[in-house]
Design brief:
alpha+beta; four-stranded antiparallel sheet; 116 residues
Length: 116
Amino acid sequence: MNKGMYCIVVKNQIVTGEEDAYLKAMLENAEASVRDEPGCLTFDVVAARDEESTFYLYEVYRDQEALAEHKQTAHYLKSREQIHGLVVDQSVLRADVVALNSVKSVAGNTETKSKG
């Protein structure tokens, strides 16, 4: 198995009523991660339709070292402070990326090229 790109899928169940505060922190963190970290290839924030107050973070990094570097950034550390006390339950799936396919943005003109 290729030990190249590394992915985590983080499931966060949030205190009911605190979704906006959580999203503010995570959206800022996700944007800064992709913008400022060469090793962060994708950082999507997804709201579960069938699970109340539940969000998924889909993050793809160049490798495991890039994820470790991400956890040292100011925006990551700030987001951890902001969500402290908001997360009721968390689980993390860790995986190697087999293929990263093209995605076209519906909202805008942005296209992400295939990485794998």
